[in-house]
């Protein structure tokens, strides 16, 4: 991609994010609650931290085990939460990547993620958030349409990964990119920043059609 | 002898007041009788310290020996530290296994080492069957910091453990997986089975307390024994519409609304019991659902009073 194209990409992102920021600022000022910000803590040495938010914690446990077994020079820390906001009276390290996992079999799971998203500061969405949609393969169990989740990911300008956490192959195939993404978000991959992850989004974004 | 070990021993000795010096050295049982006899307690502290370090060098003191001395110092001067108490709750229905000290020590090291390679862990027995554990924390890249160690005192026959917290806040997330410090003004907390060797300290469950509350409420409501086998429950509603929005067509309606809800399942009561732990429903469940075994009915007609 030429430099000018990159500029168009980023300015487009910026304008979308400004709209998103205005929307969420209204929400935040009305709620008056503490907002989850990405860079308000100093990072710890060599510990990239990932936060997985989902009602389906049992399903995610296997994915987490696979991620921790990945060969990685850094020492990973994983936080599992059902929803945001997190209990505020525990000290925790800086979160580098948030993964919102929605089970397509459960509307409650989607609703939970939608409410949790409001607790996250907009600057997180510059590459530090990722969506995971679980169970698209079993069509007859799906109560959330895949378009809904696609739209959600597009609204929040973040990558969306589809997976089925039941089979071994899928688990491994999901663990590796997540660990690499986490390393990038924690700044452990030289030369690659979180903004480089922006092209991972849904390919139906309008600006990519022009290229 | 390593320079860091020498420095560490020096600092410990400097902390010990002269009155306790002999007692502590004897308890340590590292220097030989001959060496102990040749100590001159009338000399100045620095000179005494140099002599002692020379003796330690003669005997090739290791980091573990130094850590041992540190534990002894802490045991004697335990009042200098602030301790938090934690209480563990064992799973019900299990007899306490006879405490196997070696197994405990091995499991403890294993769990800690899995998360952090650079830790120094030392054990020492105390009075009244207490087990004192000293942990010096390091990170992936740095060696353990011996000067800011955490001490734990565990009484194996009881569910209590005392922990002294050092200033190294970053280790709290790791230890908090084991003992969650929620509120420092009320340190007595209930925690589920302390050492589960399958536990990975790198995974932190944020909603642990809530999950345990839900489990506790579910257990209080449904008990531990298998539920009676039931295949369906039916609720017939005949109530008037209640609205907070003032008048509307439905709110003005005189007749009660009729509605039928039927729950069916291969094992209904077990399904209801698993609703809250699975996160699908809030705990406690509605009494309309939980009263089924008590009342012995599964057909309900609900009317306005």
UniProtKB/TrEMBL annotation, chain A:
<dbReference type="Pfam" id="PF11111">
    <property type="entry name" value="CENP-M"/>
</dbReference>
<dbReference type="InterPro" id="IPR020987">
    <property type="entry name" value="Centromere_Cenp-M"/>
</dbReference>
<protein>
    <recommendedName>
        <fullName>Centromere protein M</fullName>
    </recommendedName>
</protein>
<dbReference type="GO" id="GO:0005634">
    <property type="term" value="C:nucleus"/>
</dbReference>
<keyword id="KW-0158">Chromosome</keyword>
<keyword id="KW-0539">Nucleus</keyword>
<dbReference type="InterPro" id="IPR027417">
    <property type="entry name" value="P-loop_NTPase"/>
</dbReference>
<keyword id="KW-0137">Centromere</keyword>
<dbReference type="GO" id="GO:0000775">
    <property type="term" value="C:chromosome, centromeric region"/>
</dbReference>
TrEMBL record, chain B:
<dbReference type="InterPro" id="IPR052011">
    <property type="entry name" value="CENP-NAC/CAD_complex"/>
</dbReference>
<keyword id="KW-0137">Centromere</keyword>
<dbReference type="GO" id="GO:0034080">
    <property type="term" value="P:CENP-A containing chromatin assembly"/>
</dbReference>
<keyword id="KW-0539">Nucleus</keyword>
<dbReference type="GO" id="GO:0007059">
    <property type="term" value="P:chromosome segregation"/>
</dbReference>
<comment type="similarity">
    <text>Belongs to the CENP-N/CHL4 family.</text>
</comment>
<protein>
    <submittedName>
        <fullName>Centromere protein N isoform X3</fullName>
    </submittedName>
</protein>
<dbReference type="GO" id="GO:0005654">
    <property type="term" value="C:nucleoplasm"/>
</dbReference>
<dbReference type="Pfam" id="PF05238">
    <property type="entry name" value="CENP-N"/>
</dbReference>
<keyword id="KW-0158">Chromosome</keyword>
<dbReference type="InterPro" id="IPR007902">
    <property type="entry name" value="Chl4/mis15/CENP-N"/>
</dbReference>
<dbReference type="GO" id="GO:0000775">
    <property type="term" value="C:chromosome, centromeric region"/>
</dbReference>
């Amino acid at each position: 991609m030429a430099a000018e194209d990159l500029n168009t990409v980023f300015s487009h992102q910026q304008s979308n994010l400004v709209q998103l920021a205005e929307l969420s600022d209204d929400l935040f000022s009305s709620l008056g609650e503490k907002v989850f910000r990405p860079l308000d803590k100093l990072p710890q040495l060599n510990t990239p931290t990932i936060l997985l938010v989902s009602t389906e914690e049992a399903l995610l446990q296997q994915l987490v085990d696979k991620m921790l077994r990945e060969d990685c020079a850094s020492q990973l820390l994983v936080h599992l939460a059902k929803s945001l906001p997190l209990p505020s009276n525990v000290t925790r390290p800086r979160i580098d990547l948030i993964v919102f996992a929605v089970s397509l079999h459960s509307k409650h799971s989607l609703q939970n993620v939608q409410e949790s998203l409001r607790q996250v500061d907009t600057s997180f969405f510059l590459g530090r958030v990722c969506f995971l949609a679980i169970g698209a393969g079993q069509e007859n169990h799906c109560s959330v349409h895949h378009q809904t989740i696609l739209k959600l990911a597009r609204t929040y300008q973040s990558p969306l990964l589809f997976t089925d956490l039941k089979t071994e192959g899928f688990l491994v195939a999901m663990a590796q990119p997540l660990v690499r993404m986490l390393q990038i978000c924690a700044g452990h991959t030289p030369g690659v920043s979180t903004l480089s992850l922006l092209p991972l989004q849904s390919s139906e974004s309008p600006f990519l059609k022009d290229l | 002898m390593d320079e860091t070990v020498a420095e560490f021993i020096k600092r410990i000795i400097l902390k010990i007041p002269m009155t306790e010096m002999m007692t502590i050295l004897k308890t340590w049982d590292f220097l030989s009788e001959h060496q102990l006899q040749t100590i001159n307690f009338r000399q100045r502290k620095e000179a005494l310290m140099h002599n002692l370090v020379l003796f330690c060098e003669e005997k090739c003191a290791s980091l573990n020996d130094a850590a041992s001395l540190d534990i002894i110092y802490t045991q004697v001067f335990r009042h200098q530290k602030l301790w938090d108490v934690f209480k563990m709750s064992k799973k019900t229905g299990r007899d306490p296994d006879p405490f196997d000290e070696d197994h405990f020590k091995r499991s403890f090291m294993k769990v800690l080492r899995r998360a952090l390679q650079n830790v120094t862990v030392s054990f020492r027995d105390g009075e009244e069957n207490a087990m004192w554990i000293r942990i010096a924390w390091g990170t992936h890249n740095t060696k353990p910091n011996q000067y800011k160690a955490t001490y734990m005192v565990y009484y194996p026959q009881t569910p209590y453990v005392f922990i002294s917290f050092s200033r190294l806040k970053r280790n709290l997330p790791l230890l908090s997986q084991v003992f969650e410090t929620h509120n420092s003004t009320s340190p007595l907390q209930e925690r589920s089975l302390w050492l589960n060797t399958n536990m990975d300290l790198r995974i932190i469950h944020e909603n642990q307390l809530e999950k345990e509350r839900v489990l506790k409420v579910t257990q209080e409501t449904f008990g531990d024994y298998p539920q009676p086998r039931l295949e369906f429950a039916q609720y017939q509603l005949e109530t008037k519409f209640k609205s907070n929005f003032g008048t509307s067509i439905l709110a003005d309606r005189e007749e009660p609304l009729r509605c039928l809800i039927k729950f069916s399942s291969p094992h209904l009561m077990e399904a209801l019991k698993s609703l809250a732990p699975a996160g699908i429903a809030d705990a406690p469940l509605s009494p309309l659902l939980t009263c089924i075994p008590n009342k012995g009915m599964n057909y309900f007609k609900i009317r306005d009073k």
